[in-house]
Design a protein that fits this description.
Structural class: alpha/beta
Distance between the termini: 61 Å
Strand content: 15-25%
Number of helices: 14
Number of strands: 11
Mean pLDDT: 89
Strand order of the largest sheet: 2-1-3-10-4-11
Radius of gyration: 21 Å
Helix content: 40-55%
Largest sheet: 6 strands, mixed
Shape: globular
């Protein structure tokens, strides 16, 4: 084959590989089709279609995403969307979901604060808006009690987080720095080895001794407890009032501009779901577990979900003041330059829904778009 042809083929392959990598990351680790496509639903028969035929929603098979799990499982979102179809996709961690939002693979996502901050700042404030809250709490540092009995024992150990730059990764790096320990933020190497791995493999890694603990969300934290781990830190204990945002609802700015009625319907579904969850905790727990079974092929054992569920607070309030604090944590951890977060929130659609329910507005802590 002539050299020129070989060179052209190499150039073509080089152009395709980044696209393949982006698509793989956008799907998220362990994404699996459940009902329809990871929780998709059929439009309500005879119902009016909104301004979009379909809305694509991303979320995690984690209990900290209970609003999405339950709202999709029970058809609450689809009821509020009427004739507009809901299509769901699951992800392992926030950075991959943010990439999917940026790549126009999803329209709306349930996501942690750190990836939302990164997505907003890296795009110069053009990629997304936070439009609502979903959950607080539900994060723990669980360790092997045979190797670690106190915080000082963490030095020299291997501790997992779900992904570089995700919310738990930032929280752990910030906490380590506060203890005076040095860890290179990108490599995770230092006084404590921070191992970035998907939640779906963390429990087996813990059982095999490949890691000594993990700073993770529920239900992974309780799965580690069931595997013999002990809670060293409940992250809620590190926050005033034990409240901090763990899951936000974000939307691409282009979708928000083009389809405000669909966004409002999704937020109505979120508010309706949260109201039902808080009024029916036992049924909601069972519904979330059924959704996990549908999405992952396996329900959580009673011991695991009974441990995990009480640590999560379901809320419509995005707890905006804590987002600012989490941005500061990312700066302290060395993963982010001091960000300008002005405009990251647009809570007008949510507050419109809350007002229609006779409920007070929630605050954007001065970080609103208007």
């Amino acid at each position: 084959m002539p050299r020129s042809s070989v060179r052209r083929r190499r150039l073509a392959l080089a152009a395709v590989l980044p696209l393949i990598a982006l698509l793989a990351t956008s799907c998220g680790y362990g994404s699996k089709a459940g009902k329809g496509a990871s929780g998709s639903a059929s439009p309500v028969a005879g119902a009016k279609k909104l301004s979009a035929d379909e809305v694509r929603i991303g979320y995690f098979p984690n209990l900290t995403h209970a609003t999405a799990l339950v709202g999709v499982e029970r058809g609450i979102f689809q009821k509020d969307l009427g004739g507009t179809k809901l299509k769901g996709t699951t992800f392992n961690a926030g950075p991959s979901e943010t990439e999917a939002l940026n790549a126009n693979s999803i329209d709306i996502g349930f996501i942690g604060p750190s990836p939302a901050i990164n997505g907003y700042t890296q795009s110069g404030g053009k990629s997304l808006r936070i439009i609502g809250g979903s959950a607080s709490g539900g994060v723990k540092l669980v360790v092997n009690p045979k190797k670690i009995t106190s915080q000082s024992d963490l030095k020299g150990k291997k501790i997992a987080t779900p992904q570089l730059g995700n919310t738990q990764d930032v929280a752990f790096l910030n906490w380590l720095k506060g203890k005076g320990w040095k860890v290179a933020p990108q490599s995770g190497k230092g006084d404590v080895s921070v191992v970035r791995e998907a939640n779906s493999v963390t429990v087996n890694a813990f059982r095999s001794g490949a890691i000594d603990g993990a700073w993770v969300p529920e239900p992974t934290a309780s799965e580690l407890l069931a595997a013999g781990g002990k809670t060293l830190i409940d992250e809620s204990s590190l926050w005033p009032g034990k409240k901090f945002v763990i899951t936000n609802i974000v939307v691409s700015q282009s979708f928000l501009k083009a389809h405000p009625d669909v966004v409002e319907a999704v937020l109505k579904g979120s508010v309706d779901t949260n109201k039902w969850i808080n009024a029916n905790p036992a049924e909601a727990k069972a519904s979330a577990n059924e959704a996990l079974k549908s999405l992952t092929g396996k329900a959580l054992p009673a011991k695991v979900i009974d441990s995990a569920w009480p640590s999560i607070r379901i809320t419509d309030d995005p707890l905006a003041a804590t987002l600012r604090a989490e941005a500061d944590h990312a700066v302290t951890a060395g993963l982010l330059k001091k960000p300008d977060l002005k405009g990251i929130y647009d809570l007008d659609p949510l507050n419109k829904v809350l007002k229609s329910e006779g409920r007070p507005a929630v605050s954007d802590a001065g970080l609103g778009a208007h």
